[in-house]
Specification:
Layout lengths: L1 H26 L16 H10 L17 E6 L5 E7 L6 E6 L10 H9 L2 E7 L18 H15 L5 E6 L1 H12 L6 E5 L5 H12 L6 H13 L8 H5 L6 E6 L7 H10 L4 E6 L7 H4 L1 H16 L19
Parallel strand pairs: 3-4, 3-5, 5-6, 6-7, 7-8
Antiparallel strand pairs: 1-2, 2-4
Helix pairs in contact: 1-2, 1-7, 4-5, 6-7
């Protein structure tokens, strides 16, 4: 019995040590080096190495700049960091879109989206979230503390770039999760939101990663969630966009890849169903976890243009077919 208990204790300590190291590697960006490929591109030996040693993610760096006229802007957050954004004006804007990238991303990864928004008549404010690109920091909390980045960007745009235009928040994956979290806390100054491929809970997002590696998630996912929360100073089990959505009442366009393994259609629909305001859910057939504006431009442009037209309608106008203020679901 003593030997059994000792063996169990060793396994418990080892499992927690591995989970702590895994969480650290996912939340802390290294100064430079080669990034670990996505799980589905790893061979068996490489997967085993990642499970033991964790991933390597260099701090994301902007490798491109907009091909539209733009201004680089630095602005503070309420918790003491300085962020970098790119302001892309429009000669006759119908709205301003404030843009937030996904996990381990950076604002240059959204240049195609900014170009698409601009073609639809929008000015854009592209943001490097904390730890990424030109912004302060070398860590991420996968959308928890980044809520301060959203509020800072809104305050900046409202104070300087676009005090009177309709303001739309746009977020991809983690960026969508932080947009929903921010709106659940304070929607002041925001007219609507567009989110793509949003996970429903942090724990499920971690489980999805294990599924991509074809290894059992229990109890590793739970341990990873726990230690990630400890390292980020939060309760990661409570980091749930599906719960935040129940407090969101602004119009939301929810876009989702049909075969996304990182945020499944079922998980994304849970978030959509919880939203309390006008909403529309659009599925992109055959598309996985990637940029939807480039994957299916026609479907993306149609949905976004309809959403923007809906925001421009006066509140008492008749609802046109597909009006985004309707809570009907659209395939």
């Amino acid at each position: 019995m003593k030997r059994l208990l000792a063996a169990l204790l060793v396994l418990f300590v080892l499992a927690n040590a591995l989970a702590f190291a895994q969480a650290w590697s996912m939340l802390h960006f290294i100064p430079s080096g080669t990034r670990t490929p996505v799980p589905e591109k790893l061979g068996a030996l490489a997967k085993a190495r990642v499970l033991l040693l964790g991933v390597r993610i260099p701090k994301p760096v902007n490798d491109r700049t907009p091909d539209l006229p733009y201004e680089a802007v630095r602005f503070p957050t309420r918790d003491g960091l300085t962020l970098e954004g790119w302001w892309i004006p429009h000669p006759n804007p119908r709205a301003v879109v404030v843009m937030f990238h996904g996990y381990a991303g950076w604002k240059a990864t959204m240049l195609e989206d900014a170009r698409a928004f601009h073609a639809l008549g929008c000015a854009c404010f592209m943001v490097d979230e904390r730890g990424s690109g030109g912004s302060d920091g070398t860590t991420t909390s996968v959308g928890w503390h980044e809520v301060n980045d959203v509020r800072a960007a809104i305050d900046r745009v409202r104070a300087h770039e676009a005090p009177n235009l309709p303001l739309v928040l746009y977020g991809q994956s983690m960026g969508g999760a932080v947009v929903i979290r921010a709106l659940s806390l304070d929607a002041a100054g925001v007219n609507g939101a567009i989110v793509e491929n949003v996970f429903d809970t942090m724990l499920n997002a971690i489980k999805n990663r294990f599924a991509l590696m074809h290894v059992p998630s229990f109890p590793a996912a739970e341990l990873l969630c726990f230690w990630g929360g400890v390292q980020s100073g939060m309760n990661a089990f409570a980091h749930e966009p599906v719960a935040y959505a129940a407090r969101v009442r602004v119009p939301v366009l929810d876009l989702q890849g049909e075969v996304d393994p990182r945020a499944t259609v079922a998980q994304a629909r849970r978030v959509f169903e919880a939203l309390q305001g006008p909403k529309r859910f659009v599925v992109f057939p055959g598309i996985d976890h990637r940029d939807l504006a480039t994957a299916d431009p026609a479907r993306w442009n149609g949905a976004v243009d309809s959403f923007l037209r809906g925001l421009a309608d006066p509140p008492d106008s008749a609802h046109a077919p597909g009006d985004l203020r309707s809570t009907r679901r659209h395939p």
